[in-house]
Amino acid sequence: MPAVNNVLVVGGGLAGTGTAIHLAKAGVAVELIEIKPDVAALGSGITLQGNALRELKALGVWDHVQGAGYAFDVTGIRAPDPNGTVVAEIPDARTGGPDLPAVMGMPRPELARILVDRATEVGVKLRLGTTFTELSQDDDGVDVAFSDTSTGRYDLVVGADGVRSWTRRALGIDLETTSVGMGIWRVFGPRPYSVTRTDLYYGGPSFIAGYCPTGEDSLYAYIVEAAQDRSTLSPDEQLATMKELSRAYHGPWDEIRENLTDGSRVNYTWFETHVLPAPWNRGRVVLIGDAAHTCPPTIAQGGAMALEDAVVLAELLVDRDTLDQELWNAFTVRRFERAKTVVDASNQLAQWQLDHVQGDIPSLMRSIAVLTSQPA
Ligand SMILES: Cc1cc2nc3c(=O)[nH]c(=O)nc-3n(C[C@H](O)[C@H](O)[C@H](O)COP(=O)(O)OP(=O)(O)OC[C@H]3O[C@@H](n4cnc5c(N)ncnc54)[C@H](O)[C@@H]3O)c2cc1C
Known about the structure:
The protein is α+β, with helices and mostly antiparallel strands. The chain is 34% helix and 29% strand.
């Protein structure tokens, strides 16, 4: 008998859908509320590392992910010179095991659609365009009031509602999310044939410029600069700014720049970070994914960490028959240090860039690859 019979998951991102799918497959009644009316409406691309792919395989969606994404096993390093000279080709670690690619680029909306479809298939009750307005718990359950005026009572509530988690706020947890000092321009567009892997250009007028193929016909490209207020720019001005910043980068960037024509596909956001000290639960409400820990995407591990939280939480809830302190202690042991180590490493990489310090990047990357190669 699982430790819980019915669970409410708040948030339909990677952490939320992952938890919901695993629990529903094990026979737990799961409702998932998602504030957006359509999780697959918008978004850029995402780089999924092998350990994320391992969890997606465990969720039963590998065939769909493989069909929609673009796999590769090497990352290129290019110079910000007139030829975009390749200065290194670094094999990526296959952290998900030898049967999975090292890295896969995916359009975010496709990934969201695949996970939501899988959730529906295994019996998750999906309530889109819905949030909660009140949470109150006693020793035996959590009472929840919803935005559509309905109410429910659950054995457990999982707050997987992202970096600005309402669930975290409802629990009265005051966690400071800080800016890392960098901002990222991202654009989603057509893939030039020459782009078959991620290439990173270090230096030039920005910290990093790069791109990742996300499918036969698509890619996302990005430029990382010092964080600044870009909020007043119109979509056309954003497009012009990103285009201007990209002029220092060549090779495939020349073609990517040519294709930069739609301001609505350009997005600017700051890198932020936080780690909630353990424990991540308050009674029968637990926070996972970005709600508990968030990092700049310098090693593209945020999605993997969210999926790993989901699988570990679901595994403990299914394998144990009581929702007690021992279960929460086991969750902390398996998740806290691992997620914090990844956040710290991601922040360190950003800080070296900000300080213009030549840190020992290979050794840091190796240590994260060793860590994430071990199943969560
Ligand atoms: C610029 C940038 C680039 C990134 N690139 C990568 C990358 O390449 N690879 C990678 O692995 N990670 C990347 N990340 C990190 C990654 O996106 C996150 O770590 C991951 O999406 C976290 O998943 P999550 O499910 O915890 O949260 P989210 O993906 O944020 O999902 C939370 C969900 O909850 C919903 N929600 C919010 N509030 C409520 C509410 N009150 N009620 C109901 N629903 C609610 C939201 O609509 C959303 O669907 C990047 C992050 C940033 C900022």
